[in-house]
Amino acid sequence: MRHDQDSDEQEAEARSYRVPMRVTAVRSYPECPQLFTYPICPRCGKTMDREYQSYCDRCGQALDWKGFSKAVIFSTARCKKPTHENK
Length: 87
Fold this sequence. Notes:
The structure is a single chain. Helix content is 17%, strand content 20%. The protein is α/β, with parallel strands linked by helices. The protein has a 3-stranded mixed sheet, with no helix packed on it.
């Protein structure tokens, strides 16, 4: 019966990805030449390329964007500026 229990757990895990989770955080790169901000998936913690997409493009988690305007901003370390050497 162990196989049935494992199967049930896998099905429950798969279904949990269908329940939208709120996006409550963004990662910001403020010291780069342009301001870049990326939403963070609440399940996998990876940054996403676009805001307001229905699912995380990394793990497939369904997303809920209600309250996104109040998301916590996580700032990254300094961005290295490109160096241009004339030779």
